[in-house]
Amino acid sequence: MNNLRTLFFLAILSLYHLNANSQSSNDISSIALFPQQNEIRNTINLSGIWRFKKDSLEVGEKENWQNGLTNYRSIAVPGSWNEQFTDSRDYLGMVWYEKETYAPSTWRGQRIFIRVGSATYAAKVWINGQLVGKHEGGNLPFAFEIGSYLKWDSSNRISIQVENLLKPTRVPTGEVKGGPFTNFPKSNYDFFPYAGLHRDVWLYSLPSIASIKDITVKTGFTNTTGNVEVKIEAEGKASKGTVILFGNGKRFEVPFSLTNNQATVNVSIPEVRLWSPEDPHLYTLDVSISDAKTTLDHYSLETGVRTISKNNKQVLLNGKPIFLKGFGKHEDFPIIGRGSSNPVMIKDFALMKWTGANSFRTSHYPYDEEFMRMADREGFLIIDEIPAVGLYFHGDTTELAQRQVICKQYLNELITRDKNHPSVIMWCIANEPFPKDLSVSGGGGDRSASPKSIELFKELFALVKAKDNTRLATLVGVMGGPKEWVGLGDVMCVNRYYGWYTHTGELAAATKLLHLELDGLHKAYNKPIIITEFGADTYPGMHTEQSEMFTEEFQVEFLKAYLDFADQKDYIAGMHVWAFSDFKTGQGIIRFGGVNYKGVFTRDRKPKTAAYYLRSRWNK
Ligand code: BDP
């Protein structure tokens, strides 16, 4: 009898878990459209001060912390937790965030969602003590429908559990035995593993009868006539709709009917004004859906008409060669950590423009969505990267399989989120995967591309092309790594530090090697090359009359040597200086004060001499 009772209890328990898991499945399409306030849709931004408590023993869930935190402290959201307190810099374990909020009574009867812009690394969300979902992976949003968990007559408790434990099963990787890094915390990459709620948390409502679920815009042109293809996916009971496209003094209106909740509309624009860095013109696209009489939902976004392609030596924007001048960046600022900050964003774009840059890479993870919209408006060309940094292909095959699953999820989420930005020209599936034996100097051991690694990268490239055939795709290769990996991309992106990590201090020898190696690489694959990183650590204010490593003079000479080299090669399609600004790293013998000093601006965005140098060179 006792046994039967136990069995019954176990069955109920497993049902409960099944249910909890099914609730937690994250529907990627729910992050496709950024929350929008208009006459139908509503939003509440929950950024501000939240309650915060560490749970280093991971007892919170068992002790029902989801029913309310006690002995908590205050924390700012967005922001990393690592720099907001005096005792938590290296803490990456479990924490809880909590916020109370009312749901406006005018939202009653609508579908209500919570959207977390980025929780690094793994998160679980409860509403009023009930689990609504979980998500793995930082730097990308996730959303859950929560209407049935909400109370209308009192405030609602939102509890978010987050942890950023470094593990070899995760992407980016950490705690990798025999990895090339010796830093602490043990990230398998060269930036601080900032943790927490890094972007805005939103509540938003959608109309319950029918809503627009996704909009995919593809643009092109023939002669002077632009074409905008708009694919609409709806849910619920709408039968038709209208696309309105306006801008540059023109307005086009195209009605459509929905079949199986889908429609594709083509708008043609005579005398189109194309999007480019020189003229980042954006058209406004308004999509609405309706039943026989009433408008049921409405969504508006901005779009730029442009094409991106390549030949064997150049990247082509609107069919014409364009050279990418710019930076590899980080989301990094003192105290805020990796948290999004609009003033810092505005300043970064102002400084990039000031140097004459037209491009950047979202190294080494997707950036805040506001940053992407800003790039559309400011005319920047983006290499949009997933957090696949520190990948490797030897060792435990189960771990490798887990990393591949999360890489695919990242690509799916990233393309779902960023597919409508004219600024995004290239998807980047990984930064510097490591061959089996790689020392910082690039020498030694087995540095070949294993057949397994080629198979897995091909799988990721195929996924990208299946989801988006309008943009280029790339993989950024490490110095000393196999050329077979970079050869898989449409454009071959390589990071090079000859003159720094090898041929230390010898710039003539460094550029000689660049000539040899990159001529060979281009010959082997006949595709354009972008140097996506090159740079030298530079302590601001350090000077010598004869240039020497770590001085501002050396940084200028280093960048000059590489840029002069690129000027001689018609197959180089872009140069991204590493890095835009100094940034926080873990502790390590090559990172003075836990900072990477390769920025041409300091961490608080003061120009080093190299910033003036780039400005004079890039504005010519
Ligand atoms: C490259 C990495 C980048 C590092 C940089 C460096 O892609 O994340 O910060 O080198 O060493 O290997 O400064």
Question: Could you write a compact summary of the structure shown?
Answer:
The protein is 22% helix and 30% strand.
Number of helices: 9
> Helical content, roughly?
10-25%
Rounded to the nearest angstrom, the radius of gyration is: 25 Å
CATH architecture of the largest domain: Alpha-Beta Barrel
What percentage of the residues does DSSP assign to strands (E)?
25-35%
At CATH level 3, the topology of the largest domain is TIM Barrel
What's the topology here?
Layout: H1 2-24, E1 42-45, E2 48-54, E3 73-77, E4 95-101, E5 111-116, E6 119-120, E7 122-127, E8 130-136, E9 142-145, E10 156-163, E11 196-197, E12 201-206, E13 210-222, E14 225-236, E15 240-247, E16 250-257, E17 262-269, E18 283-290, E19 295-303, E20 308-310, E21 315-317, E22 320-322, E23 324-328, H2 342-355, E24 359-361, H3 369-378, E25 381-385, H4 397-418, E26 424-431, H5 451-467, E27 472-477, H6 483-486, E28 492-495, H7 507-525, E29 529-533, H8 552-567, E30 572-578, E31 583-584, E32 595-596, H9 609-618
Parallel strand pairs: 23-24, 23-30, 24-25, 25-26, 26-27, 27-28, 28-29, 29-30
Antiparallel strand pairs: 1-12, 2-3, 2-4, 4-10, 5-9, 5-12, 6-11, 7-8, 7-10, 13-14, 14-17, 15-16, 15-18, 18-19, 20-21, 21-22, 31-32
Helix pairs in contact: 2-3, 4-5, 7-8
Bound molecules: beta-D-glucopyranuronic acid.
Key terms for this structure?
single chain, 620 residues, alpha+beta, Jelly Rolls, Immunoglobulin-like, TIM Barrel, 3 domains, eight-stranded parallel beta barrel, six-stranded antiparallel sheet, globular, binds beta-D-glucopyranuronic acid
